[in-house]
Amino acid sequence: MNDMLRVENVAKSFTLHLQGGIELAVLENVSLSVSAGECVALAGDSGSGKSTLMRMIYGNYRCDEGAIRVRHGDAWVDLAKADPWTITEVRRRTLGYVSQFLRVIPRVPTLEIVAEPAMARGVGRDEALDRARQLLERLRVPERLWSLPPATFSGGEQQRINVARGFIARFPVMLLDEPTASLDAANRATVLELIEEAKSAGAAVVGIFHDADARTQVADRSFAVAARAGAGAA
Ligand SMILES: Nc1ncnc2c1ncn2[C@@H]1O[C@H](COP(=O)(O)OP(=O)(O)OP(=O)(O)O)[C@@H](O)[C@H]1O
């Protein structure tokens, strides 16, 4: 198997400082590998730890135990032990993340926001802007909005800009947190197409899809994230 991502024996608990230091154990002994061209859907009840696992893979949450190995160029990097600079480098070149919410940068026009991850991966400005236009067109974001900062855009418009940012750079490993939530049928279909195209180009994809039809369409398999005894107790 041409693995791109290996999660090995990962554990995570949260300490709730505002509630007397209660320890909330969420994940224990989680192992998962994802190969190039494969899409794995994280499945499990609400509160089971799907988003927590995704944030750990992105390096937002530290692991209590275990390793999160990502193939970064010719090397393997363990994000559980990597320093912040290395995590930033892995995100710039290897690891894309479509979160549910767009982090808006004040005053920066939509077109630039979408083009930025491609430029950060070394794509020339003109080509990056071209790709951004194509993606915004495919995702039906009206051209009159492209020169405006997206702060005041609707939830669905912001989500499509987030999707465009996630897909423009052709990351080898992609994390998708509910990429079709709050989209209409036509845009939902486009996002599923983009996921299929990324897989065909060799991306390893990990997704959370509450939309069961979307999951069936793009995921090659599901990975059950099981809530630990005690999780959700607080
Ligand atoms: N930063 C945090 N601090 C404390 N507890 C947290 C934190 N993040 C998540 N949790 C807890 O961890 C558990 C798992 O949450 P998580 O968001 O990963 O679940 P999920 O499977 O993604 O749920 P859903 O399907 O509802 O989005 C929950 O009980 C949640 O309260």
From TrEMBL:
The cross-references to Pfam families, in alphabetical order and at most eight, read: ABC_tran (PF00005)
Q: Member of which family?
A: Belongs to the ABC transporter superfamily.
Q: Which InterPro entries match?
A: AAA+_ATPase, ABC_transporter-like_ATP-bd, ABC_transporter-like_CS, CP_lyase_PhnL, P-loop_NTPase
What name does UniProt use for this protein?
Phosphonate C-P lyase system protein PhnL
Name the Gene Ontology molecular function terms of this record. Answer: ATP binding; ATP hydrolysis activity; lyase activity
Q: Cross-referenced Gene3D superfamilies, in alphabetical order? A: P-loop containing nucleotide triphosphate hydrolases (3.40.50.300)
Q: Which PANTHER family match?
A: ALPHA-D-RIBOSE 1-METHYLPHOSPHONATE 5-TRIPHOSPHATE SYNTHASE SUBUNIT PHNL, LIPOPROTEIN-RELEASING SYSTEM ATP-BINDING PROTEIN LOLD
Q: Which organism is it from?
A: Minwuia thermotolerans
Supply the alphabetized keyword list.
ATP-binding, Lyase, Nucleotide-binding
Tell me the ranges covered by the ABC transporter domain, including all copies. Answer: 5-234
**Would you say which domain of life the source belongs to?**
Bacteria
